[in-house]
Structure formats: C-alpha cells, structure tokens
Amino acid sequence: MDYTDRETLVDLRRTLHRVPEPAWCEFQTTARVVEACEDIGVDELHVGPDVVDSDARMAVPDDETLAEWIERAREAGVDESLLEQMAGGHTGAVAVLERGEGPTVGLRVDIDALHITESDEADHHPAGEGFRSEHEGCMHACGHDGHATIGVGVLAAVADSDFQGTLKVVFQPAEERVGGGKAVAESGHLDDIDYLYAVHLGLDHPTGEVVAGVGGFLAVSHLLAEFEGAGAHAGAHPEQGRNAVQAMATAVQNLYAIPRHDDGATRVNAGRAGGGTATNIIPEDAFVEGEVRGETTELMEYMKEKADRVVRSAAEMHECTVETHTEGEAPSAESDEALAAAFAAVADDHAGVDTVLDHDALGGSEDATYLMQRVQNTGGLACYVCVGTDHPGGHHTPTFDVDEDSLDIGVDALTDAIRGVAADRP
Amino acid sequence: MDYTDRETLVDLRRTLHRVPEPAWCEFQTTARVVEACEDIGVDELHVGPDVVDSDARMAVPDDETLAEWIERAREAGVDESLLEQMAGGHTGAVAVLERGEGPTVGLRVDIDALHITESDEADHHPAGEGFRSEHEGCMHACGHDGHATIGVGVLAAVADSDFQGTLKVVFQPAEERVGGGKAVAESGHLDDIDYLYAVHLGLDHPTGEVVAGVGGFLAVSHLLAEFEGAGAHAGAHPEQGRNAVQAMATAVQNLYAIPRHDDGATRVNAGRAGGGTATNIIPEDAFVEGEVRGETTELMEYMKEKADRVVRSAAEMHECTVETHTEGEAPSAESDEALAAAFAAVADDHAGVDTVLDHDALGGSEDATYLMQRVQNTGGLACYVCVGTDHPGGHHTPTFDVDEDSLDIGVDALTDAIRGVAADRP
Amino acid sequence: MDYTDRETLVDLRRTLHRVPEPAWCEFQTTARVVEACEDIGVDELHVGPDVVDSDARMAVPDDETLAEWIERAREAGVDESLLEQMAGGHTGAVAVLERGEGPTVGLRVDIDALHITESDEADHHPAGEGFRSEHEGCMHACGHDGHATIGVGVLAAVADSDFQGTLKVVFQPAEERVGGGKAVAESGHLDDIDYLYAVHLGLDHPTGEVVAGVGGFLAVSHLLAEFEGAGAHAGAHPEQGRNAVQAMATAVQNLYAIPRHDDGATRVNAGRAGGGTATNIIPEDAFVEGEVRGETTELMEYMKEKADRVVRSAAEMHECTVETHTEGEAPSAESDEALAAAFAAVADDHAGVDTVLDHDALGGSEDATYLMQRVQNTGGLACYVCVGTDHPGGHHTPTFDVDEDSLDIGVDALTDAIRGVAADRP
Amino acid sequence: MDYTDRETLVDLRRTLHRVPEPAWCEFQTTARVVEACEDIGVDELHVGPDVVDSDARMAVPDDETLAEWIERAREAGVDESLLEQMAGGHTGAVAVLERGEGPTVGLRVDIDALHITESDEADHHPAGEGFRSEHEGCMHACGHDGHATIGVGVLAAVADSDFQGTLKVVFQPAEERVGGGKAVAESGHLDDIDYLYAVHLGLDHPTGEVVAGVGGFLAVSHLLAEFEGAGAHAGAHPEQGRNAVQAMATAVQNLYAIPRHDDGATRVNAGRAGGGTATNIIPEDAFVEGEVRGETTELMEYMKEKADRVVRSAAEMHECTVETHTEGEAPSAESDEALAAAFAAVADDHAGVDTVLDHDALGGSEDATYLMQRVQNTGGLACYVCVGTDHPGGHHTPTFDVDEDSLDIGVDALTDAIRGVAADRP
C-alpha cells in the first residue's frame, strides 16, 4: 500500500477509528501501525517491552482488562507472535528510518482512545459513513486515530524524500491517562534525538489554521487514594466501625482547600470518589481518584505534596489506612522557538494553510511534555505543533470527529519541517 | 403435600433457599408459597396488588431489575397468570383461614433475600447438602426462607387443629430494605386483627431458646440523596463546574455531626456515597445513600429532619440540585406483654425449648413494627417473637444458616400460641 | 460567733455571696471559712498545699489572674500569712473534728463561683437586700455560697452533738471547672473516710424536697487544643502559610462527627473556638476549647481518645502543631443506696421536708464524683444528696438565688445523717 | 512654616509618626495637615463630610472607638470646631490650588495607621530618635506619615512654581482597611481631574529607585459574617442548640474550597474566625472575618458571590441566621502608560534617583484603585507611582521605617511630573 496516498491514509484513519482501544490495550492499533511500517520498509522497528521503560509505565490496567482486549485483538486476527510480544500491556511502536549523515529527528504521535460511547446519529460522520467505533463504550474522541495516521504518513513521505539523517516516529500508548509519556521518555529511544516534533489535531483550531509552537502545558499528576477502615453494624455498634467514607469526605473537603500559590495557577479535582457497601453498614472502604495540576512542574509538585498530606491525615483522623498511587503524571513544558519557527515557515507555504499562529497556550495537560523535556535536557530541541481541524463536537465528546483534509496538511507540513530542520539544523 | 410434616417443611425451606430473591422480586418465592397455601386449602388467598397499598411500597427496584427477576421466574416455570398478577413488583401473599366464631389472629413472616454471595465451602451446610443459592450474588442470609416455611407450617397446623376464629398469615415482601412493612400495614388486611405475632429465627439465640417479647426496635429511615451539578474541565475551566462531589462530602461530614439527643439513642450512617466521572472532570453527579435511626420514632424523625436539612444545604452551598427519597422506613415498637406471656407459656411446654426469655431488645430495625403499630393503634395486641436457632455465621454473612430443628419449634409454639390466644383472648 | 444559729449562717452565706471568687482564686472565701472553723474549734485545719495533691489540680489560672485575686483579697484585709499559704492558687480547706472512737465521716462542699454578672434588678433578692456580688462579672450563681455555709453549719452542729467518731469537712475549690475534685481525691484526706456525703442545693427541686441519692453523673473531660501554624500574607503568598484556622475548622467538623456508641449516651461540644489575626494574614494561631462526656467513665474515655485523634490529625493535615491539655475532668458515679437510705430516713423526719426522693439522675457533670469514687474504691460508701431550694432563676443564670430556709434543712438533715451513720455503720 | 524646606518636611513626618491613628480616626493627623494647607495658602480646603460620599465609607469604627480617638485628639489640643466638622469619623481633607488656565491634576496620598505596636528597640530609628508612636498599639508601619508629608510638600512646591492649572491633593483616610477609597471616589472631587497620581513609599524598592507605573493590584473585598444560633446545655440538651461554631467551621472549610478560576489568580482567607461562650454550652454566636481577592475585579466578584453562598448555606445547614457585611473593598487597576512615562522622564533627571522602573506589579491590594478607576472612567488618566525607600523592617511590621531622604525624591519628582503633565497634556 502507498501511504503517501491520501486515500490510503483516510482508509487507515477509518480503520483505526473503528477499533479504538484504551491505554496499554492498543493491540489492534499497534498491529495495524506495525503492518504499515513494514510496508513502508523501515530500518528498525521496535515493539513490545523494548518500546518503553516497562517499570515507568503508569495507569496500566489489571490483568483481566488486558486479557479482554488481547482476546478481542486475537479474534480480529492479530498475529499471535506479535500479541506475545505485547503481553502485559506493551503496546506502541518506534519506527526508525536511516538515511545517511544528518541529525536525528523525532516525531511523536499518540494512539490510544477514550472510554466514551460514540454517537450513532446519522449526522455524526463516522456513524453516517459506517466507520463508527466497533468497541462499544470506547471511542477515538480526541483524534489519536488521526495522529497515528499522520505518523504513518510522515514516515512514508520522508522515506520517499531527499531527507538526510535519521527519523524516529514514536507511536506512544496511554496518553489519555498521562501514563505512557514517562515510560517512552525513559526508554532510551529519545536520547540521540536532536529535534522532536509532537503533533495534535484540532484543539479548537479550524482546518487551515496551525499553531507552530504550543506551550502552557499544565503539569499534572493523577492520584488514587484507597481508604480501608472497618465495617460495623451502623445501628448496633457504630463505635466498632472505622469509617472510610468519613475519611474520604474529610479528604475531599480539604483537597479543594489546598492554598493557592503565588507562583502561578494550580488546580485540584477529586474527580471520582466513593465508598461503602450498604446503608446499615459503617463504610469499610472508600476511594478518591483525582488530579492536581500546576502551571509549572514545581507547582504541581507543591499540590501533590499537599494532597498526599491531606489524604494521609484524613485516613488517620478516622483510623483508616490509606494507599496512594500515582496513576499518571506529566510535567509542564514549552516549545522551542527555533523549532516552531521552522515549522511555521513551511506551514505557511502550504496551500491548505491560511493561518499560522506562532504560539498558543494549551491550558490543559499532555504527556508529550515528558518526551519534550527529555530531548531538551539532553541538548535537543522540542516543539509541539497543532494542526487545526474542523471538529463538530468538542474533544472528549461523543460527536467529536476530525476533518480528514487536515491529515494531508499535517503530513505535508511535518514532512517539510522534518526535511528542513535536518538540512538547516536550526 | 402434607405441610404438617417435618420433612415436607424442610424440603420447602431448602427449595426456597435455592431461589433467593430480593425486595419486590420474590416471584418464585411467592409462587411456591401460593402453591402451598392452595394445597392446604385456605379460605381466602390474596396475591398481586391486593396484598399491599401499592403506593406505600418503598425501595421498589427499577423496571429493568423487575423484568430480570420476572424472566428468571418465568424460566423456572412460574405460572404466567400469576406472574401477570405480580407485575410491577406486587409480590407477597395473605392467606386467610376461617374457622368459625373467634378472634382474628395474624402471623407475619417475611420472604425476601439479600444481595450477598453465599459461601460455597463444603462445611457450609446448604453448599454441602446441595441447596445453595442458584441465584449467584443473592442469598437467604437472614433466615427468611425459614420464616416463610414457618408461615406455611403454622397455616397447615392451625388448619388441622381445633382453632376457632380467623387466621391470617401475611407473607411480607421487602423487609430487608424496610420497604414492605408500611405497604402491608396500610393494605387494610390488618385492621380486623385482634392479635398479631411476628417471628424471627436466630438473632444470636441458640436452638432451644426463645424470646417471647422482642422490643427495642430502633426506628429507621433510609434516605437516598442524589446531587446534580455541572461538569467542567478541571484543568481548563474549574470555575464552570458545580461540584457534586464537594456537595456530597460536605453532606457526609455534617450528617455525622447532627447533634446527639437527650431523649435517647440516635444513629446516622452515610453507608454508601460516591460520585464523579473522571479525574479531569469536575464531578457532575454524586449521591449519598444512608440511614438515620432513633430509639423512638420521634428521635428518628428528629434525625431525618436534620439529615434532610444537611443534604439540602450542602447542595445549595455548591450550587447543585438534590433530590431526596425515603427508600425505606420503620417506626420503633414494643411487644405487648399479654401476648408475649401467652407465647412464653406454650413455648415453655415444648420439648425442644429449654430457655424462655420474657424480653429482649433487638437493637436493630425491622419493619414488622409498622404492622405491630397498626394493630396496636386499632385496638389489637402485637408481639414479636424470636425462635433461637444455631447459626454458624452471623446474620447477613455468607455462612449464615439455620438449624432446621428450629423450624419445628417455631411452627409448634406459634400454632399453640395462636390457638391459645384465640381461646383465651388475653 | 455561734454557727449553730440560723441568723449567723444566713449572715455567713450573704458575706460569701458578696465576694464570689472563681476556681483556685477563692482566697477571701477560704479565709472566711477558716475563720469560722477556728471559731468552732476544730482539731485539725488544713489549708494551702496540704489540702490537695498540688500537681493534680486542673484549670489553674495563670499567674496574672491569681495575682489579681490575691491583691483583691489583700485589700479586703485577708491575713498576709494565710495568703502566703495559699500562694499559687492553693485555696480550699479541710476541717477535722475528732470525737473519739467511731467511723470517719466526710462531708464535701464546694466553694467557687462563676464568671457571670449578677442581676441588679431590685426583685433579685441579693440586689434588693444589698448583698449582691461586689466582684463585678463574678457571681455565686450555683449556690456554692450556700454549700460552704452548710459545711460550716454542719461542722458546728456536729461539734455540738453526741457524735462519736471523726468528721472531715472538705471545702473544695474549682468545682465549676471540674478542676478541683481530682486534686482533693488524691490528697490522702479521703483515704480513711468510711462514709462520704456531698451536697448540692436546688437542681430544680423546690424547698422542702430532698433527693437522698443523686446519680447519673455524666463523666466529663474538658479539653483545650491550641494550634500553631505560620502566618503569611494572604494576597501575596498564601502558599507560605500553615493555616491554623483551617486546622481548627477541620477539627470542629470532625469532633462533632465522632461515632455514637452502643453502650450509652455520649456528648461532645466545641464550646469555644477561634483563631487568626487579620483578614489579610493566613491565620497562625487557633484553638478549640471543648468537652466530651459519657454516661460512663469508659464512654467518656472513648470520646476523649477520639477527640484527641481528631485534633492531632487536623493539625497534621494543615501542617500545624497542636498542644492539647485536659482542663478539667470528672468520672461518672452512683450514690450508695445504704448511705442514701440513712439520709432519707432522717430527712423524712425533718419538719421542713415534705418530699423525699430516693433517687434522681443529674444528667450533668460534677467532680464530687472523684471523691465519691475514691471513697468507694477504698472500701467506703459515698452518697450525693440534693437539698431542694426555691430558685427564681436557673442555675448559672444572673437571677439565680437560694431560699435561705433550705440552709437549715441542709444543716439539720446532714448533721442527723452523719450522727446516724456514725452510730449505725450502715 | 516653609513646607518647601526639607527640614520642615522631616519634622512634619516625625510629628505625624508620633500620633498614628487608625481608619476614620485620623483626627490629629487631619488637623495637622489642615494647618499645613492653611499655612501654604490653598484656594479651597475641604474637610468633614464634604471630603467623601459619607454613605460610601466602609469599615467605619463604632461610636465608642470614634469617641476615644476624638477625646485623644481633643486632649492633644485639636481645635473644637474642626473636631465637630469631623464628627462621626469624617476625617481626611482635599486641598485645591487654582493657578489659572490648564488641566486639573490630582495627587492622592493616604494618611491612616495600623494596629501594630511599634518596636522600642534603640536601633529602630523612630525609637532611637524619640519620635516613636505615642499611641501604644498603633503605628505608622506602612509609611502613610511619609505619604501625607509628600502631599503637603508637593502642595507647597507646586504653589511656589510656574504651574498652570488646578491641583487637588487628596488626603485619604482608611486605606489600610480599604475603606476610604470608594467614599473619596464617589465624592465628586475627582470628576474634573484630568491626571491623577497616587504615590507609595517603599514596597521593597530601595532609596534611589522609583517605579513609574505600578499595576497588578488585586481587587479585594473584606467580608464579615456573623452567625447566630441558639445556646443549650451541651450535656443535658444538645439537641436544643443551633450550633454557630459548626456553621462557622463548615463555612471556613468551604470558603477555602471555592473553585479556582481559569481567568486568573484568586485568593480567599478566613483571616479571623471564632465563636462560642463556654465548654459546656452549645455555641450560640460565631463569626468569620475574611477576604477574597482577584486578579481582576470580575474575579473578585466571582469569589465574593461564592463566599456569600458558602456562608449562607453553612448558616442554613446548622439552623443559624447569618448577617454579612462588606467591610472594605477595592477594584483592580492599571496605571496609564502616558502618565507613567511623564513621571519616569522627570524622575530619571533627579539627582537622587538611580533606577527608574517603567512598570511593576503590586501583587497586593490598595483602594487608590477606586480613585484611579473613577478618573479613568471619566476620561482622565491615572498612575500609581512608587518612590523607593530603604526600609529596615517589612511593611506592616514593628520595625518598619522610611528613609527620610526619599521624601525629597517623592516631592521633587511628583512636583516636576505635575508641572510637566499640566504643560504637555500627554
């Protein structure tokens, strides 16, 4: 197949859209990407545990969940030996193209989907065109099907070009849970990268608009606190309980009350909380699953430390024990101007692009920041670009969709930028 | 079948034990009880909406749940016309025996089961003997299979005796949720009852011990509060949320802090609480499901009013709406001494009984109190008796079981007591 | 002066009423009592540190407060050497009368006043008659002026009687703060007492009614928790504060939410709380002053342990330190029936008594319980009696007053009871 | 006296330093300023109610406090007719100089002091030099003695110059409580001002450094919430109380938990909180005194609305009533660049100035913003300048002091700037 062809790319995107898979369960997705890379003919192709620092993965689902998604992939015909390589949730891939002397350029795309049920209304394009999610309750509602497609498209286009140097395309799992970035950053694959681009579609920018340097990522940490107390009959022996729901409620109240910080914006959310078993039983178990954020990594760390203290003290107050886990994490980051400028220059020349913004702040979080930071810390430059796309519904909603015209723009502009920085070493 | 026969009763109890059904879903159980009543030959048999004041039912499950249990009963061969009568969760039965002039005596037994998974250990008698629950996750863990059996046994034994008067045996649904008592009490069936007995097995009394007059029921009310706020992205727009989990946490903290009362014991428990959808979304929905109790009905009402205020104010504080429902309720009650004495006298004569306690306090709640109160308010007497039974596990635990020898004791003692009060009009 | 004379006793009571003094500041009161004891001619008279176990005193005011009240006593002409003995708040006295062979009988009366401003309305008897408090803001609003007078009256009357044995009258300081009982109990003076009476006027019983055996004392513990955090400018550097008011608020919320107990009634109250310095400073200091109670001493201890945990965890949650002090404490207690019966018998014979109640429950707290417990633990009997008195205003209100007729009843009945138990050894 | 003379100004500053007076109690201060204005010979001098919109004053102390400070001023010899004009806390003054055709230029200085006890250490300059505060517990710890002096100095210097136009110097009371700005803004005196300067000494800038345009004022609102419930005996009848301390604690917990806002920084502080009367009484009264702030006035309003909701709901939850008052308030503001530039230009020429900063953010709050906003809204320009001064202790601390050399700099630079803008109309 010719992945420099627009129709092929649209087909690929729709194929991926049909089989959305959540964090660390991207078995079919990875298989399809691997197939494309082999078609294109890369020089190295990393899959399985070699893609990441396995221990640095966060938010890996339990064995039962992994088994379900593996079984689904098996039924869909994924090759058994590839499934074996990906055992334990080792999804994702790193494809390497070696084209002689020149710098090493990286492109990071993410590939996971969300636990959202896709709209089945006829005017929702994937539903109307017949490529709606076949995994009910799971959906590509953030465009990662498009990102993976762009990754493949760039790989094919660069392979087909006068590019001199090395290209690494990273197909990263588990971005939605901010669970994969750290593991990729610590894999070693980035340590020789001179220039890294990461790309996102949409973000409320229309088709034809691109942002050359996205910044303002909020550092984020997801935390899970599980309280364990002791049940007791609420009528007969209330004093024998150690009330985990009281601990949870005390924690929630005080989490939101962590002091604001003069150095910049902070956030906290007890996004999910719950506990207890029956009306007449003093609650024995409870949990809070939440997140803290900061305009800088330091501010996130400040919030995280406070949150940890709140949770521990709330447990102690109600004689419960508590276990806390970091479920996902990402630092803040900024795009390097030189790399953004290189992208802006080539994007501006593209027929489909009518507006180029030099900079925009994300105002959210994303674990590409781990990769960007890694490259920046080892002497390289990193840049996060946004390729606008008309999206009818907002990101993370059941009617989200991407305008497939933006795939071309993304592939072309990134390919040109990669060729450019390889040649000009900004 | 001869329901005055011990073996028949044990068989009946085991049959019922195999098919435990939760509140208002006792379709097979009711069918089996109806079959027995018809076998015995009662003069009136009420089933369907006629059993209760339909609108006074509490804790009725949603249509989907009802449909599942009806389907299960249909597959088990329950007669379609009976299922139609019970549509909408109208389970339970009232059987009437008319035996000439004499007072009207009532016996109330409850028939529902619990959402508990029964032990499958070999030394758990029902598992070892092959009559473990066939409805995985549902279990007769409080002896209501035995209560229903005793109801049938007493009906058969009284029918077979010199009893003069009218006997009404009430097979009440939904006691575990304190959801059925009020609906039965307001059905009209009790309004001509002169003497009412209610019976419970076990309660930590061994086989051979009976309690003639149980009292000290805590009045109870189950409440469900559902908060609705508005979601928002926790990183990008925390100010746009109206946080239902904050409302829930504020409610939980303040529910437990309702002032103690000088008139007697009170209780409060937020037994289940939860809310939210994702770590990065300001929680839009949350709930508290709990209970309040009082040593008297007035004390329970005091707690209920305070709890309602707490829940409403917590919602208002966080700009949420809240809907509150009473999911179940029961007043406090005391057994009439004259009726207890009548039972004590005959129980003491029974060969299997070695200890008769005149009085004991339950320390828990039970909606037989609605029936007792109704009878007492219309000029009758009411008494709650306990028939001890060796139970290896505690009530409401996976290893609960009853000693089947206690079924005989219950049937015999109650039959004699009913005959006695009909003759002597205490 | 003849303290067996009614007029003399009324004068004494009015003298004491004029100079109310709070806990451990009863310098003038003690001086006046000492003068009376010397007049009567006791065999031993303990004053100063010898009255109590000095270290076991609770709620002793700070040096400045002590100095103010000492100065006031000095100006009123109290003997300098007596003031020296009482230095550091060693008020109170133990008077001993030795009258040959016979049991040792004790009488405990309390002598301190309250921080209440006495009514100056003409129809408030002390105001109308000119013996209203001369210590503005301090008042005998609980009848301890009468109690001290009864102590003196009994001492004189027993001295003047055929009593055989030893009489110890304990004039106890600091009852209102439950701060003096423990220190007296541990002084050693009680260890040889065979029979102990304690007496209280009023308690909503009218003149002519007495209660022979008061019980139902709630065990109580007063706690003071002082939080210390760190201030910071609330606008410029909120993150630099460690917020003591947040710690206090978290503590208050969770104190009231300590679980109820199946063994009986408990109480908790954060009666005073506060903190902070200015609207724009993160609060650096805060406190909670409160109490816990229990129907039994064990229940009070349960509450105290929970309260301590709440306070410590609340401090930890907000990175504050906390110091907690027990400001006062008293166990629960019951009167011995034999001793109550002895009192009831003689009281019933008294012309001024028309009703004798065998028993009544206090429903409050009082640290005579420490003394009662001490005597009971060392093999003696103890009994708390109430001598009714018409009191226009409630206890602890600005219009409280005692009917001086009840002083006679108290002196006579107690004298007869003491003579009786010495003779009959019940 | 010649107020263009440096020694005279230093004397004036020291005189004012000796008699610090809090918000709306600046009776001696105003009298001294009035004397100076009369000496200089102004064309109009407004004192008393004419200075402000009387009803728009915030944080006016109670009559008793006003009376104390008036009495103190009377004893210090302040003229009785002036005191009468200032009755009810109508302090401050507006002095007007008319010098022919030209724009109207305003200068705002604030004159109140703080409730801080001034250091008496010899190395604290005012203590060492003998002009330490004579009003123990009150102190000019924020340099307003210097501000008032600069106001007088500029008035004298402009009067003595070639200035063409009208100059209004506003001596504003009650800045420390953000209580006076609004009342001055709504007085009408500002409505014809074309150019307004406000000035502050120090702010961590050393002598020789000036900031031409201060901005970044946080909008602020001080709130006082007073809860009233019902007392009850905590042992005997806890259920009869309506607990104001519980309401307060619930409010505090939820105030700090008001959601952060995406539009910018917000702040909240429950700076003072308290309540209750005695350990054994359910608390009947409580209060929270605090503040909210926002990077913009809208953000402050957002916080204020939320805070109000929290306080009302907390009261309702515990069946208390609550009264809330706004005790002080100020919007955010920015300095106009043109006016800042005019000041920067002349300041740069001054021999004593070595550094001129165009802009700095205050990061705190100040009610000059009301005046700035008023002038800006009526078509004028406004600018807040900072004149650096070496200050040994921080603002609002007992060792704060100003370097008197900075008085000259302030007077000279402001005089030149005022002359400049009058001539050049930027």
TrEMBL record, chains A, B, C, D:
<feature type="binding site">
    <location>
        <position position="144"/>
    </location>
    <ligand>
        <name>Mn(2+)</name>
    </ligand>
</feature>
<dbReference type="GO" id="GO:0016805">
    <property type="term" value="F:dipeptidase activity"/>
</dbReference>
<dbReference type="InterPro" id="IPR052030">
    <property type="entry name" value="Peptidase_M20/M20A_hydrolases"/>
</dbReference>
<dbReference type="GO" id="GO:0005737">
    <property type="term" value="C:cytoplasm"/>
</dbReference>
<feature type="binding site">
    <location>
        <position position="200"/>
    </location>
    <ligand>
        <name>Mn(2+)</name>
    </ligand>
</feature>
<feature type="binding site">
    <location>
        <position position="142"/>
    </location>
    <ligand>
        <name>Mn(2+)</name>
    </ligand>
</feature>
<keyword id="KW-0464">Manganese</keyword>
<protein>
    <submittedName>
        <fullName>Aminobenzoyl-glutamate utilization protein A</fullName>
    </submittedName>
</protein>
<dbReference type="InterPro" id="IPR002933">
    <property type="entry name" value="Peptidase_M20"/>
</dbReference>
<dbReference type="Pfam" id="PF01546">
    <property type="entry name" value="Peptidase_M20"/>
</dbReference>
<feature type="binding site">
    <location>
        <position position="176"/>
    </location>
    <ligand>
        <name>Mn(2+)</name>
    </ligand>
</feature>
<dbReference type="GO" id="GO:0046872">
    <property type="term" value="F:metal ion binding"/>
</dbReference>
<dbReference type="Pfam" id="PF07687">
    <property type="entry name" value="M20_dimer"/>
</dbReference>
<dbReference type="InterPro" id="IPR017439">
    <property type="entry name" value="Amidohydrolase"/>
</dbReference>
<dbReference type="InterPro" id="IPR036264">
    <property type="entry name" value="Bact_exopeptidase_dim_dom"/>
</dbReference>
<dbReference type="InterPro" id="IPR011650">
    <property type="entry name" value="Peptidase_M20_dimer"/>
</dbReference>
<dbReference type="GO" id="GO:0071713">
    <property type="term" value="F:para-aminobenzoyl-glutamate hydrolase activity"/>
</dbReference>
<feature type="domain" description="Peptidase M20 dimerisation">
    <location>
        <begin position="226"/>
        <end position="315"/>
    </location>
</feature>
<keyword id="KW-0479">Metal-binding</keyword>
<feature type="binding site">
    <location>
        <position position="396"/>
    </location>
    <ligand>
        <name>Mn(2+)</name>
    </ligand>
</feature>
<dbReference type="GO" id="GO:0046657">
    <property type="term" value="P:folic acid catabolic process"/>
</dbReference>
